[in-house]
Fold these 2 entries.
Entry 1:
Amino acid sequence: MTELHLQSAWIRDAARGQWLRFHRPLRMHVARTLPEVVPVLEALDTALEAGRWVCGYLGYEAGPAMDDALSAHPSSGEPLAVFAEFDEPEVVEEPPFPRHWITARGNPPPELAFREGVQAIRESIARGDVYQTNLTYPIEVPWRASPQALFAQLVHAQNATYGALLDLGDVVVSSASPELFFSVDAGRIISRPMKGTRPRSAPVAELLGSDKERAENLMIVDMVRNDLSRVCRPGSVDVPDLFTPEAYPTVWQLTSTVVGETREPLSRVMRALFPAASITGAPKSTATRIIRNLESGPRGVYTGTIGFASPDGRAQFNVAIRTAVVDPDGGRARFGVGGGIVWDSSPQAEFEETRTKAAVLSYTPPEFSLLETMLCRDGEVVLLKEHLERMHAGASFFGFVFDGHAARARVEAAAPAEGGWRMRLLSDRSGILTLNVWPLRETAWSSNPRLVVGGPRVSSADVFLRHKTTHRQIYADMLAAHPDADDVILLNEHGEVTETCFGNLFLDRDGVLLTPPASAGLLPGTLRAQLIRQGRAVERSLRPDELTASRTLIGNSVRGLYRPREIGRLS
C-alpha cells in the first residue's frame, strides 16, 4: 500500500453543517518516512498561501516526527501522511451513497490481551510513570459491499459530526468521528476532547456522576490547554464548556471545549497538538512508549487525524476514531476501538467499553415511519402542500416508497368539515399510509409552557433531527430528564440553540424573529418555513444566554406561536 494517492474525498464541514466534495487533485503530498512528515505539512502551508484548498490524513505513527520524545510502531507500509491540493470543493447537503444496512461481524476481540494491557497500565500508574494511557486494538471485518456503503452506514449510525471519506485508490478510509481535534476560523482555534463513555441505554446522570470519567476528561483538558498554549496568544486559552454530555445512537460521550486565539500556520498548529491528547495519555512521551509496548502493531490512520484547510484561514481536523480502512479487493475492513486507562480502571469494564464503541459496526437503525402532524380547521388542512413536500423529501432521503397524490387524497377525504382537528399521517417504508384524526385540545405546551435548557447535547449531524419520523427517542429522553418542564430547549455540540422537543424556536428582535439555521440540527417546520418566506423570520445562530421568556417564542403548524412563561437554566 505504499502507492496510495488521494483521488477524492468527502468531508463534513461541521461549522457550516454541509459536506465538501474534493475531487481532481492538483498536487499530491505523501510522507512515507518520519523525516518527510514536517516537509509535507510545510508544503500545505505554501499551497494555502497560493490560494489552494488542502485535505487528507496524518497517521498516528507520524507522532515522533512532531516530537522525537514520542514513540510509535514503525509503519506497516501505509504512508504516514497523505494530502492533496484542490481547487474550491463542491458543497453538497449529503453524499449520494447507498443507505442499506449490513451487520458487520469482526474477528473475536482480544479480551485477555486487552485486560492484561489495562492491568499493566495500572501498574505503570502505581509506579508514577504515567497518569493515563489510551489502549486500543483493531477489529478485522469481512466487507464485500462498497466502501461507500460502509461509510454511509457508519456516518448515520454514529451521527458523525466530523465524518470523512478518503478514496486512496487501493484502500478507502471511512471515518465516522464524533470528536474534533481542532478547528480554526478567523484566528479562533477550538479543540473538543472527548473522554468518558456510557452505553446509550444508561441514564446520562450515570456518566455525569462518574468521578472516574470526569477526572479522565479533566486530565486530557489540561493537556490540550498546554498544547494550545504553544501556538496561541498568551492568556487567550480558555475552557468555556467542561463535562458536556453528547448523545449518539449507541453511546453517551463526555466532551469539553478548549479555545484560544492563534495566527500560526497549519504546520505549526499540527506540530504543537499532534497526536491528540485524548488518544495517547498523560504525559504523551511516556504514554506513547507504553502504547508501543502493549499494542500489537501500528494503528495507521486510526487515532490520527483527517481534515481540510482553506486559503481563507479556516481548518477542521477530526480525531480519527470510529474509523475503518477498507480494502475493497481483499474484501475486508479494519476498525479500531479503545479507551483511556486510569488508576481506578477495571480491566473488564474497560473491555466492555470498547465493545460498546464497536457496536456501531452492528448497529441497525430502528424501524420507523415518516410522520406529519397537521392542523385542520373547518375542513381546510393548513399547509398541506408543505407537509406533503416534507414527507416526500424524507422518503427520498431514507429510500421509502411514497405516493404524494394518494396521501393528499387520503388527508382531504378525512378532513372534518367543522371545528379544529389534529391530523397525524404516517407513511412506512413500503408506502402504506395510516391517518388518525383527533379534536384539537388545549395543552400545557400551548398555554405558556415552562421551558428548560437541556443538558445533554444533540449532534447536528443526526439525520433524525432533520426529518420528522416516529423515531423520536432523543426527544423522549430529554423530556424524561426534565419532568418538571413542559418542553426542553435543545443545544447542539457547538452549544448552539436548535429547537424544542415540540416545535421550532424564535427570538423576537425588534419585530424580526430570529430562528436557528437548519444546519444546526433541527426539524425545519412548516410554520417556520412559512415565516421565513413571508420575511417575518430569518435564520441566525442563537446561544442559550440570549433567550428570555419575554422575547422567546416556540411554535409549530398545529399550535401556532406561543411564549413560554419561564425558561429554566441548568446549574
Note: The two ends are 52 Å apart (CA to CA).
Entry 2:
Amino acid sequence: MLGALVKASPLVSLDSLSKVVTERFPGAIGEKNVAAIRRAYEEARGIE
C-alpha cells in the first residue's frame, strides 16, 4: 500500500521511504518490507 501511495503522491520519494523503513526495521524484516513497497510501487496504476 505504501508503494502505491508513493507513486500517486509527490510528497515522498520511493528512495526516502525505503531508507526510513530499513532504518526503523533493520535486517530481514526491513528488506522484506522494502521489497513489498517496491512491488506495490511498480504495480500501481493511475485511474484511466
Note: Residues 2-43 form one domain.
